[in-house]
Design a protein that fits this description.
137 residues; mainly beta; Immunoglobulin-like; ten-stranded mixed beta sheet; 5% helix; 55% strand; globular
Length: 137
């Protein structure tokens, strides 16, 4: 196993001092985009900036935010989400979430898929997301 100094010499950024909890992707219909939800805890003394996500279970996986403006609901893509030092952020229905476009056939309730979160500075964190159906099962 390589230490942080060896990773820096190889050009790889170290993984952030962060942890993912309650990671899940909710599939409504196999032919429609799926939503990814989780909590991201930043254990570092500096803010952390999430800049993207990827998974073999999705053709593309984007950071999104649901918003309501003047009584109209909308979803917008975001290019980053900041997590304060020693803080956390929750990706949940009605707020920030991952949008899984072109879900793979293997993305079905009961499965798990790897999701890699990427951060400003080049670090990344890979974790397993459980796949659930429309009612959380």
């Amino acid at each position: 196993m390589l230490g942080i100094a060896a990773l820096a010499l190889l050009g790889a950024a170290p993984a952030p001092d962060a942890e993912v909890h309650d990671a899940r992707i909710r599939v409504l219909l196999a032919s429609r985009p799926a939503g990814g939800y989780f909590q991201l805890d930043n254990h570092a003394a500096e803010p952390l900036t999430l800049t993207g996500a990827a998974s073999p279970g999705c053709g593309s996986l984007m950071l999104h935010r649901s918003m309501n403006s003047g009584g109209t609901d909308s979803m917008v893509a975001v290019d980053h989400v900041s997590v304060p030092a020693h803080g956390s952020i929750r990706f949940a229905p009605g707020g920030y979430h991952l949008m899984c476009m072109q879900p793979a056939p293997t993305l079905r309730p009961g499965a798990t898929i790897p999701v890699t979160l990427t951060f400003a500075g080049g670090g990344s964190l890979t974790t397993k997301f459980s796949v659930e159906g429309a009612h959380g099962r």
